[in-house]
Design goal:
Layout (H helix, E strand, L loop, with lengths): L10 H23 L12 H12 L19 H13 L5 H7 L4 H12 L18 H12 L11 H4 L18 H13 L9 H8 L2 H12 L22 H4 L4
């Protein structure tokens, strides 16, 4: 027997194909008729640019409670500007910071630095540690390194660059008080391993490599345990030479 053909040209299979094509055409027409999406307009304002900073560094740059994100409020403007440049240009390694700053112009970064530098906010009590209790001997060693250094190891006192009160020195040296121990140790380690750089000659990288691991722990523990005196400010511009050649001090701005 001969198989019977469909009476309609193309048969039921062709009808299905024609139906699908019709559906596609209708859907395309619907998409074409829809109103185009309006682009999102992000305001080009200082407040908008500061939002990522505050998400990590806390409201008004007071620092986060986790221990690794420092206070940026009240730091010298030239220092903050340098660090923004360092993150953007790869001298400091942090993918989040690099992503936030990748397309920011120098004048934007200088404006951001100026905003946080102008904040005059009280400090909380001594920065919290992650359960690490320093012994009296370790704290005594930390105090020695902070105020007198260790000439036998070629280590000048921290206060020689960061000011006698360790509150920083204008125009571009940050204070060391009010920072968590974890953050201080992490930064010393970053300089020792080449994960953090500053403008050459990089004095902090050189000094950090002279520190024994127990000394890095001692000075970080002692600094984190100190209360911040009320009204502490960065000292005026130095009148004596720094103990080591330091590019970030000698060329604080671009």
């Amino acid at each position: 027997m001969r198989r019977r053909r469909n009476s309609a040209p193309g048969g039921s299979g062709a009808a299905v194909v024609r139906g699908l094509l019709a559906s596609v055409v209708c859907a395309a027409s619907s998409v074409g008729a829809a109103a185009p999406l309006e682009p999102v307009q992000v305001p080009d304002t200082l407040a908008q640019r500061l939002q990522p900073c505050m998400a990590c560094h806390g409201t008004e740059g007071r620092a986060s409670p986790q221990g690794y994100l420092p206070r940026i409020a009240g730091k010298p403007a030239a220092y903050l500007f340098q660090q923004l440049l360092n993150f953007r240009d790869g001298r400091r390694s942090n993918s989040a910071m690099a992503g936030f700053l990748a397309l920011q112009r120098d004048d934007y970064l200088r404006e951001m630095a100026g905003y946080f530098a102008a904040l005059d906010l009280p400090y909380p009590g001594p920065a919290q540690t992650t359960g690490v209790a320093a012994s009296p001997a370790e704290l005594a060693r930390g105090a020695q390194l902070a105020h007198r250094g260790d000439p036998a190891r070629g280590l000048p006192a921290c206060s020689a660059c960061h000011g006698s009160a360790l509150g920083g020195m204008l125009p571009a040296v940050p204070g060391l008080l009010g920072l968590p121990r974890d953050y201080l140790i992490a930064q010393l380690g970053a300089w020792q391993t080449g994960q953090r750089h500053a403008t050459a000659p990089d004095c902090m990288a050189e000094l950090s490599r002279r520190l024994a691991p127990e000394d890095a722990s001692a000075v970080a523990s002692w600094l984190a345990a100190q209360p911040v005196p009320p009204g502490l400010k960065a000292a005026a511009t130095r009148t004596t030479a720094a103990p080591l050649a330091c590019g970030s001090i000698e060329r604080p701005a671009r």
